[in-house]
Every structure is written in C-alpha cells, then in structure tokens.
Amino acid sequence: MPVRPCDGSDIEKLASLAHAAFEETVDHEPLGLWTRKISSIINGKYGTFLPTASFMADATAGQLAGVVLATNFLFYRGPVIALIAVHPCAQGAGLGTYLLRSCVNALSVEGFTVCRARISPGNDVSKRLFQRNAFVLRELWVG
Ligand SMILES: CC(C)(COP(=O)(O)OP(=O)(O)OC[C@H]1O[C@@H](n2cnc3c(N)ncnc32)[C@H](O)[C@@H]1OP(=O)(O)O)[C@@H](O)C(=O)NCCC(=O)NCCS
C-alpha cells in the first residue's frame, strides 16, 4: 500500500477517513466535527503542524486507507501524534504500526527525542498500538 508524506491539503478526505475509523470507538464524532478538528490540526491550533513527520496511505478509488498527523505542541512540551487512523477495511494488517513508526522515525531524524499521544480511556486498540511501539502509559489527571 503506497504511503506518502501528508501536507494536510486534503482535509475532506482526511475527515472522511477519521469519521469512518473512529465510528465504533469512544472517540466517535460527526463528520463535520472531524472536518473542523483536522483543519485545526493543520492550521496550528494544536501546535505547529509537522508535514515531514505526517504520512498517509492511499486506498483504491482515490480514498485514504490511513493517516498519521504530527504537531509540535508546547502544551505537551514537544511533538504529539495529533491523529492516527486506519480505515476499518484496512485495520489489523499492520498499517497503523507502519504509520506510527514512520512518524516516530521522521521525528527522530529531525532531532526530537520524545513523542506523546493522548489516548481516551476505553480506546484499548489504540492503547495497544502505542504500547507495542515503545510508548509508556501515563495517567493524565484533570482537575
Ligand atoms: C488504532 C489504529 C490506528 C490501529 O491501526 P491498525 O492498522 O489496525 O493497526 P495494526 O494492524 O498495526 O495493529 C496494531 C495492534 O492493534 C491490534 N488490532 C488492530 N485492529 C484491531 C481490532 N479491530 N480489534 C482488536 N485488536 C486490533 C492488532 O492486532 C495489533 O496488535 P498486536 O501488535 O498486538 O498484534 C486503528 O485501529 C484505528 O484507526 N482505530 C480508530 C482510530 C483510533 O482509535 N486512533 C487512535 C487514537 S489515539
């Protein structure tokens, strides 16, 4: 499956992918909200978008199979996986792992030594993906 850098120019396709990928998860949102959220990621609301560490995989018929978007977010004191999503038709075949590793490798080449991600409680597939790729779980206390 061809994987290429993601410059964030195709927000509608990215939103459609995220909508499908998250539909059966605790993080599901309507399509319009994904469009706004992805625009915000690309436009810097969650830190500077890092196109050189962001990748997407093409499926057939002009659709996307997967994406990882990275930002450099002061709030998290460094780079963050702002979005990782694989279309349900392509899940479980290693694409999420490949995208995550491509992103972390690119960040490392750019000199970053840490990378963070926020996982919602109950998103166990996501937790497993990150833990299997050397991320360490930390509880986030709010209040
Ligand atoms: C999380 C996600 C990106 C993983 O993508 P993927 O291409 O399926 O991942 P991989 O095939 O590389 O598999 C990663 C691990 O998850 C497991 N997995 C994948 N799909 C699964 C499923 N539907 N149910 C249970 N486990 C699953 C794999 O077995 C693998 O575990 P292993 O390494 O112990 O074998 C994908 O499931 C997804 O888009 N989920 C919805 C969006 C989401 O939650 N994003 C993360 C937000 S922080």
Task: Describe this protein's structure.
- By secondary structure, this protein is α+β, with helices and mostly antiparallel strands.
- It has one domain: 3-Layer(aba) Sandwich (Aminopeptidase), CATH 3.40.630.
- 33% of the residues lie in helices and 20% in strands.
- The protein contains 4 helices and 5 strands.
- It has helices at residues 11-22, 31-42, 95-109, 124-131; strands at residues 3-5, 48-49, 55-58, 64-73, 78-86.
- Strands 1, 2, 3, 4 and 5 form a 5-stranded antiparallel beta sheet that branches.
- A hairpin with a 5-residue loop joins strand 3 (55-58) and strand 4.
- Helix 1 (11-22) packs across helix 2 (31-42).
- The longest helix is centred in the C-terminal third of the chain and has 15 residues, at 95-109.
- The protein is globular.
- 32% of the residues are buried.
- Bound molecules: coenzyme A.
- The site of coenzyme A has 22 residues, from helix 1, strand 5, helix 3 and helix 4.
SSE order, as H and E? Answer: EHHEEEEHH
Shape: globular
CATH topology: Aminopeptidase
Instruction: Give the overall pLDDT as a whole number.
Output: 94
Instruction: Write out the CATH superfamily name.
Output: Gcn5-related N-acetyltransferase (GNAT)
Number of helices: 4
Largest sheet: 5 strands, antiparallel
Radius of gyration, taken over Cα atoms and rounded to an integer in Å? 14 Å
Architecture per CATH nomenclature, i.e. the level-2 architecture: 3-Layer(aba) Sandwich
Q: Report the top-level CATH class.
A: Alpha Beta
- Euclidean distance between termini CA atoms: 43 Å
Number of strands: 5
Range of strand content:
15-25%
Unreliable runs, pLDDT <50, ≥5 residues? none
> Percent range for helical residues?
25-40%
Q: What is the SS-derived class?
A: alpha+beta
Count of spatially separate domains: 1
* Ions, cofactors and other bound molecules: coenzyme A
Protein name: N-acetyltransferase domain-containing protein
GO molecular function: acyltransferase activity, transferring groups other than amino-acyl groups
InterPro entries: Acyl_CoA_acyltransferase, GNAT_dom
Pfam families: Acetyltransf_1
